[in-house]
Q: What sequence folds into this?
């Protein structure tokens, strides 16, 4: 377990990452329309949805607040040159009651499914967590029936860890453990 993931002053952490095709940026209020549409749709079923409007609002607010409380958080994924269009949310997630540091992902826009955007963004987020945040362990918590997320975790090299602690024991999930980068913990 990695209970010691500290608060990191926001000014010292990249609030924006760029990959070959993508910009990953800190979420903010402009992301509400896309977040609302996703969290209130059937697409959000693997993460407990669909939600009503109030819960959708609180979910996005928690993502935005995670940055202030931890100094890092999940990024909104956008295409280069189209930074306003939120395609999904990917990156570090470690609420106070989580047993381990997680890299999570949600693709909000179904038109980008199968394009490699989730893989590209998740790899950037994982590398950032090892190299910048200095995490000692990374997992991804996945609903047992979320086959797309399972495939992505495996594509990223993560392996199922049936012995890992559950974030919500009353809602069992699969825990995929990501292999450490060569610089992890150095």
A:
């Amino acid at each position: 377990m990695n209970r010691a993931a500290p608060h990191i002053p926001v000014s010292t952490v990249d609030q924006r990452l760029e990959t070959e095709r993508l910009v990953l940026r800190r979420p903010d209020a402009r992301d509400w329309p896309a977040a609302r549409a996703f969290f209130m749709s059937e697409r959000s079923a693997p993460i407990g949805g669909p939600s009503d409007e109030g819960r959708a609002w609180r979910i996005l607010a928690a993502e935005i607040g995670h940055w202030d409380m931890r100094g890092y958080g999940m990024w909104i994924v956008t295409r280069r040159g189209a930074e306003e269009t939120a395609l999904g949310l990917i990156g570090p997630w470690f609420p106070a009651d989580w047993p381990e540091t997680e890299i999570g992902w949600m693709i909000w826009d179904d038109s980008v499914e199968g394009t490699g955007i989730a893989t590209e963004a998740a790899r950037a987020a994982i590398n950032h967590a090892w190299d910048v945040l200095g995490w000692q362990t990374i997992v991804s918590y996945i609903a047992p029936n979320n086959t797309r997320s399972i495939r992505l975790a495996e594509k990223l090299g993560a392996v199922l860890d049936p012995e890992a602690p559950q974030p919500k024991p009353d809602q069992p999930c699969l825990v995929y453990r990501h292999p450490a980068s060569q610089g992890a913990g150095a």
About this structure: Residues 10-133 form a domain with the Aminopeptidase fold (CATH 3.40.630.30). Strands lie at 16-18, 22-25, 75-79, 88-93, 102-107, 139-142, 159-160, 174-177. The two ends are 18 Å apart (CA to CA).
